[in-house]
Design goal:
Chain lengths: ~290, ~290, ~290, ~290
């Protein structure tokens, strides 16, 4: 009896985004449509993409209906292939955790946006390995958690932060200038859910002090990159990048100042895309529908 | 007997892009799919867009099958609404006519691309109201037609040019710095088929001498706009725009020089989009799938 | 005796930026140097610019020495021409007043920067014709002055705001999204001292609701312009402009959101230039040394 | 008697750009001015820059007068320091040699510009290690020299090309997509006189196939870099860089196509700067006055 109730509960009327990726085959879109029809799903929006190099097919569907996710997934899996990846996302304000270290510009910008209802997400908490941003965060009445890393190994610190995050069950973790490296265990727990802002036009200047190295190299453009975090430093799937022109009169400090403004801008644009369920990760790239 | 043959001839296996736009209604994508299924069309690619302001729905379909265009169109028209617009495009290299006046940079760039097979279109002819570019064009063995406007009224000149163009039955007419205004009759004959490159970030500096006016206004960025031509000067649907940063040291000549490079670039990017059947015109805007 | 003291006081060792503009004539740089030498001025930095169109010559000098400004100016005026304009600026953190209305993004960004010492200016006060930003401003312990405009004529409101500003003797007034038009009397009092951020790539979309009009026009790039305020709406000398690429999927709200980020960025870059004494106004343009 | 004549010949009225760089010291600008005065030089334009990190001072002077270069240089060297670098440049159309391999877009663009007098330089010859561009170049009546590298070692090929170039005594050598590495001996002969266009936002994607690697990395912006050639691959002083936004729908071929347009644009802007004597090389950076 309880099982039936549970199933009934799960099979209610809902609106979801469904991403499918699998090996392309003839008639694939027609087959996907047929499954949707068989489950009485109304299709609200649809976009397809074929990666000709790998012959991998991608589809983003906004669907509406009275369905059990697992039974829909089962049908697709059965019909399409064993390599299929399916990914339901909810069309609602995501819940996020922000990780920061010392720099106020990205977090400050998000706090202002949040205070005036312009963020399109709910900030559950802000976690930092330093106390310096506590007074700023508390001005905005957001919970600030300080987890000191001084006496802990990297593993221990990561695990403490992860444990705290797990309590909140966030949809996304935003590294808004978090100057610590995440362990692979941490990343595995939030695969394609962790977004970092790096202060260079990746893949240039991976790692520490990119602005200083940009200055030394004498570049004429600097930039920032928002990307998902994977196990390789600054090497995850890129979501958004943009740049600013500079010239020889810019000292390292000038570059940092302009760079901060570009970072804010790039992070904001990437979060807009993610929070509207438009981004799909494929290998080391993003498909942005 | 001849009728049957004709029909048979028309109902052969083909690959087309179909754009549909109409008032949105519940279940519209499902209905469109159902029609495709009833005609045994394989859907190769699909993208939808809903303009929330106007409640107009757009879909781009790449379809393949053995069908008569008119009978497919008939079904859609019947099912969807009286306001529906349907537009089949062929997936093949388009045939184009270039109109130019005196400036060599856009035409020169397209001629070089064409010579090395990088244009993705077939240049049928180049028409000009001046002789100055004839030697350049003839280096590349493209037919050059000179239609003097000195002794003709605007109407007469337009009509002469139109008459010549009609012989070629081009898919698109590219105004690669054509410094003449087209009559509304001319435009009506090639509705959403005429692409112009204007040397400003429209809607700023509509009309003559935009670079000089940009200089006088002291702007810090200049740019170019590729747009479809409609009946209002420099006011048609915009396809692509881009910019260059300038500073006070740029004389009008410097601005012109940089501007020419931006014009080439913007025209190229717009033509790439059009030649790959990705652009749909809606009111005064473009939907770029 | 008091006069001598006063003179002595004024003739102390100092560091200043001097801008000179006048009709160009042969040997002008040599003459300017000669004057500097005669006053024992050490030249720390120097840049010249000749506007070939108007034959107006510009020079920016960073000088150091023990001098009376008036006597230096007197010599230049005497030697060069009656059309000369001379402008001493102090090399120090400028004092600024911010004027705002309802939107938090520009002011929020400046408040965060200021809190962490990244602004390179001192905010004396924030003045608004609405109360809505008061709580935000007060989080940062900056004086907030509310001057209601409901019961006042434009002239009266402007004069009240001006009166308050005059008390502070600011070096610059920043309109960080101030949605009121300044009277010519107001502007005259702070000629080339008032900086506005306008949310379009001027001269496109002068006036109200530029983002809405950009959306309606179907532009593919939006942008922002930081400019000095003169007597004509959104028509003063431009300091900095930048853009963001958008596409048809951006609703007006999406454009506004991206636009806000561009506005912040453009205002920041313009203020950096101004606060480092690099901007000279000439007619309706800026020379940025 | 012949010596006197020779000296007289060298000491005629001329207009030159003089770059000086040396360790900064108090009063340096005043001292430089004093030397100019002592030689009766009229200063037409002047710009200074101090690199605060290294304490190196830079000045660009446009001077006019009746002088022997060596005696002016002697005075500066004597007064300023042993570390001084002095560099006279002529204000006139520079003579250039273009080196190419197989790709037509950069060379084509320069040939079109040159044909219509928009290049601001004189093309002496075009040299290639392939025959493929010969027909294109000959359309424009520019001498084309083919130096096959198949049967030669790198050293031998470089030395043959260098020998040919030396006959022309060019001011600059432009590598307009020259896919060969220059020997250090070659570079030494034309130190800071060789300009390359690389198809990435350096320092990302140094070396071969940058577009393919950009595609694989899933970047959202691509770009090009014009730089002086030094002994390290793609690592010389950067002159100009710019970018284009791309998305996941761009295949490698699409990226190449857009990239070619960006390359042309970036090379053009860099050459404009160089041909107007505005670029000074300092360590691995460029000062652009």
């Amino acid at each position: 009896m309880s099982i039936i109730n549970k199933n009934k509960k799960r099979k209610h009327f809902k609106k979801k985004v469904l991403f499918i990726s699998c090996i392309h085959k003839k008639g694939i879109i027609n087959q996907i449509m047929t499954i949707c029809f068989s489950k009485f799903l109304e299709i609200l929006a649809i976009s397809t993409y074929l990666d000709v190099d790998t012959n991998i097919f991608f589809i983003r569907l906004e669907i509406q209906g009275c369905f059990q996710e697992c039974s829909v997934l089962y049908l697709f899996r059965d019909l399409l292939s064993s390599n299929i990846k399916l990914n339901f996302q909810s069309i609602k304000k995501p819940k996020i955790i922000l990780l920061v270290t010392k720099e106020p510009h990205c977090i400050g910008n998000l706090l202002i946006k949040n205070k005036f209802g312009h963020l399109n997400a709910e900030i559950l908490a802000i976690i930092s390995n330093h106390k310096i941003l506590k007074p700023l965060v508390e001005l905005f009445n957001i919970p600030f958690h300080y987890i000191n890393h001084d006496t802990l190994s990297d593993e221990e610190h990561n695990s403490k932060v992860l444990k705290l995050i797990n309590k909140f069950k966030p949809d996304y973790i935003i590294l808004a200038k978090y100057m610590r490296i995440l362990t692979s265990n941490f990343i595995k727990n939030y695969n394609n859910k962790i977004i970092n802002i790096h202060h260079s036009i990746l893949p240039s200047f991976i790692g520490a002090r990119p602005y200083f190295r940009a200055y030394k190299r004498g570049v004429k453009i600097i930039g920032a990159t928002a990307h998902y975090v994977n196990n390789y430093l600054d090497s995850g799937p890129i979501i958004f990048q943009d740049i600013a022109h500079i010239d020889h009169t810019y000292t390292v400090n000038d570059i940092v100042r302009v760079g901060h403004d570009v970072e804010q801008y790039v992070l904001n644009r990437a979060l807009s895309l993610i929070f509207s369920n438009r981004v799909l990760v494929f290998q080391n790239r993003t498909i942005i529908f």
